[in-house]
Design goal:
single chain, 779 residues, alpha+beta, Immunoglobulin-like, Trypsin Inhibitor V, Chain A, eight-stranded mixed sheet, four-stranded antiparallel sheet, 10 helices, 40% strand, elongated
Amino acid sequence: MIRRNNNIMSCLLTLFLGILILPSINSTYADEKIAYPLTIMVVGGGTVNPSPGTSYYPQDTTVFINAVPNADWAFDHWEGDISGTDMYTQVYMDSPKTVIAVFVTPDWHLTITHSGDAVGTTFPPAGVYGFVDGRTVGISVATSEGVYFGGWSGDAYGANEFITVLMNSDKTINARFTSTGHILNIYVIGEGGVTPSPFGNPHRYSSDVIIDVISFTTNPLWRFEHWEGDIGENEPRSYILFNLTMDQDREITAVFIEKPYYTLIIDVIGEGNVSFQEGFEDPILLPQGTHEFSILEWTYIRCEAKETLPNWKFLRWEGDFGDTSPTYPRCSFSMDRDRYVRCIFTNQTHVPDVIGSTQANATSAITSAWLTVGDIIQVCNDEYDYGYVVDQDPPAGTTVEIGSTVSLWVSIGPCPIPVPNLFGKTREDAELEITSAGLTLGNVSEQCSDEIEPGIVISQNPEYGELVPPGSSVNIVVSSGPCPAVVPNIIGQLRADAENMLISAGLSIGTVYEQCDDNAPEGTVIHQNPLAGTEVLPGTPVNFTVSTGPCLITVPNVVGYSRQLAENILTSAGLTVGEINLQCHNTIGTGFVISQSPSAGEQVLPGTAVNLTVSIGPCLEGSTEGEGTTEGIQEGIQEGEGIAEGIQEGIQEGEGITEGIQEGALEGEGTTEGSTEGEKPPHSADQNSDWRIDLPELLRVIQFFNYGGYHCALPGEQSEDGYIPGKDGDKNCNPHSSDYQPQDWTINLTELLRLIQFFNSGGYHPCLDGEDGYCPGLL
């Protein structure tokens, strides 16, 4: 970092001149004055000018000395009778003195070089110098006739004749000198100074070098006025500094004049004081009255209003008080002319207008006007919202003494409205009354009433006459008509009791149905509609169903089945097996049912006995059909020759219907041959259409039974009969012939037994009275 000050160059020149003339002064006055010894010593690598040793100097002589470090050494500081870190210093000889120059190993090196076509001089001269970290070094130049300074380069810049360098790193600075250039002579009129200094005239600069020209005051009673001479294009001439291009020889003069005095008058009006400070003098207190001062130009003035009585307040400044706000208690300005300043204190104020302000803002405005808030009266007001001032006393603009009170009327919101009476009105009329009163319709709910007709207001909230804010909601309850009756629970009641319960609940008897029920006693209610707990209008009919007792059973068809299977079917249907009659039959195999009583399809009570006629085989010669012996049929049954036994055994053992069929098929022998087909297409299970159900065909249907259903085979799926086991799947084809009771894409036990009947009968044929369109046996 470089700092510039050409004054130091003058000091350096004076220092060197002093060194040269001191010996002559010493010799001239040695016989007339007291001489004191000056002992100079060195620590480290370096020397001192004057040289180390002891020399004598006349009393009151000033000796200029400078430290000169050796190569790779740095001057650090002075010790003894002087101190400091400047390489150049001085000693005042008023007694014997000892000075020690201390040199240390350098932290940084400063390299000074010269360039150009002329030889100039720098202080220090060109060379390498060591310095400790953070030391500031002054470097100056000197020219002579024919030698012109062209400026600094490297770690310095500009063309000032004296610069300073901060040594915080190694640095190189070059001074350029040329053989051609221009001369600058600079002069001062009055008491003041300039840089470059007049003591250095003439100043020689290379062509087109730009230099800084600065004026400065040396006497506080004088000020710079203007420049004269060849200052180039620098305007206005009253600027204290400018840049000057040395493109010609120039001669300039800095003109300083004595500062004038200006008159300052300060008027203090009212009960109060003004603190007055002139420049850096101690402030004084100015009381009420007029005060006049004669003050030097540009003196800085500070004033502050000081209140002295509780009810007297600073009001404002008037006149030439500067740029501050007139109501700010402080003001300041420079004395650049005559000034008149007035400071006004007052004990009166104007009441501010606070109507329409919030109470908080109104309070702030009143206190800011040096007043106090008086009574606060709360009133309703339809114009101003809650918390806003609707009136004040005194009115706005009234002049009153400071500290007076201002009363406020503050809104608590719009004035309340009495709620109208809505009872007995229709909803439409009630809403009109509400809105006409400045209120709003709130929630509208319904409630049953046995006394008030539908659509009429039963109650309201808030109540009639209650005071509420404008715009408040009024909720109303409107009659929905008579209150509903709750249907009682009549399930399990005798019919007469059920009817009495309905009538007591305000309901009527609807349609009464009858239905058998195996669990409910005859004459008791088993169903009702609407259900118990339902809310209905009074008089609503309630339909219910009365049990007629246990349900009748449809006698199943067991003709053509083996005796054992027929008995199982009957007992499974809730019936009992009655008498067993045995007779011969030429077409129905041994052990199979020839006929039954009651007949298939009759409705009978549960547990009714069904008598069976069972075949004992073909009739003997000489005997008519229907005769036979019990022994033969018993033997067949006992030996398990009938297929029914195999089926039943498979079901009871839990092995699946397939195993039972296999066993029965292997053991059974009773089949009938010689039948013809009818015109009806063959059964779906009859894959070869031979009007017989063989074992593989029966097992296929048993597979559907075991899978819980079947579905249609899609194109590409392998299927022997067009169906796939399993209920989930496509059902857009014709159902299987065995799926008939009901047709639900599953094969139940009854449907499976029907197919087993065809298997045991050795065939089947179409018939109109068959339950599935077919009958056992071949035609």
